[in-house]
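PROTEIN DESIGN WORKSHEET
SECTION A - STRUCTURE
LENGTH: 283
TOKENS:
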């Protein structure tokens, strides 16, 4: 750990966003990113004195200044709207359901990606890991899960790690569980979302599946490049690696928070098994 790291503040507890002034929100995001006032002032090309005045409420940032600071701090679009509102400006980024006619091109793009990925599983989730859409292959792996886990909104992390969900079917449960926790922790750090933080606490408190063991056969060479998802199935052990797809230039809240996770076979046996399963389902 270097001296610069030692002088940086720890992430701050999120203020009450419903009532917090814009300066307090700015300070929260700066501290959440572990930036000093000098760090942010340098990046945003503003004096540290002016930044300090904005954070303490002695100066009100202009709309352009607020957006510049939010951009440098990589504040999510939803939270940028909160910053704007707290400063007395109109929100800039609209939020509409994916089924809204205005988002039809994006909705169609998501459906094309999911359908094109068959016979391999793929699903789309929102910022809290609630299921938005999925393809036929993903349906097969969710079949048989209890109603309490499959009643909308379906949280895919809860369904994956719950002992009555997919957990007993995951051969490398320990490694996959830690992988999901690492991803979730990164999202909490990036977004500052208290709902995600609460979800992480809930998932860590879940009991382990019956007969849990750390022993997990991994595809040869796979553990050196990615954490695979290995599932027990009626046709044998299926091994996957996954990719995440997001919209590259969103200016709408819903799109900025949407992610598609696509699973690819990690070995030839899995690819053949999925192709065979899809052909049998089509007959």
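SECTION B - SEQUENCE
RESIDUE ASSIGNMENT:
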């Amino acid at each position: 750990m270097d001296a610069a790291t030692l002088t940086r503040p720890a992430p701050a507890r999120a203020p009450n966003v419903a009532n917090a002034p814009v300066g307090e929100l700015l300070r929260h995001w700066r501290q959440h990113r572990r930036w000093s006032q000098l760090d942010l002032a340098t990046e945003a090309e503003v004096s540290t004195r002016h930044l300090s005045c904005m954070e303490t409420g002695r100066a009100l940032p202009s709309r352009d200044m607020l957006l510049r600071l939010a951009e440098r701090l990589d504040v999510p679009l939803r939270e940028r709207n909160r910053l704007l509102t707290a400063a007395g400006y109109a929100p800039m980024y609209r939020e509409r359901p994916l089924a809204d006619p205005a988002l039809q091109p994006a909705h169609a793009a998501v459906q094309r990606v999911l359908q094109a990925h068959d016979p391999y599983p793929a699903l789309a989730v929102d910022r809290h890991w609630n299921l938005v859409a999925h393809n036929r292959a993903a349906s097969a792996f969710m079949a048989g899960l209890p109603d309490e886990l499959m009643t909308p909104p379906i949280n895919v992390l809860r369904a994956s790690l719950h002992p009555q969900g997919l957990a007993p079917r995951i051969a490398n449960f320990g490694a996959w569980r830690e992988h999901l926790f690492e991803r979730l922790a990164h999202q909490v750090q990036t977004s500052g979302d208290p709902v995600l933080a609460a979800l992480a606490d809930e998932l860590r408190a879940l009991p382990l599946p019956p007969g849990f063991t750390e022993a997990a056969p991994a595809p040869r060479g796979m553990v050196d490049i990615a954490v695979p998802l290995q599932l027990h199935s009626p046709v044998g052990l299926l091994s996957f690696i996954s990719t995440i797809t997001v919209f590259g230039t969103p200016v709408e809240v819903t799109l900025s928070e949407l992610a598609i996770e696509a699973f690819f076979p990690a070995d030839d046996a899995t690819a053949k098994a999925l192709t065979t399963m899809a052909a049998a389902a089509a007959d």
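SECTION C - NOTES
Confidence is low (pLDDT under 50) at residues 1-12.
The domain at 101-282 is CATH 3.30.450 (Beta-Lactamase).
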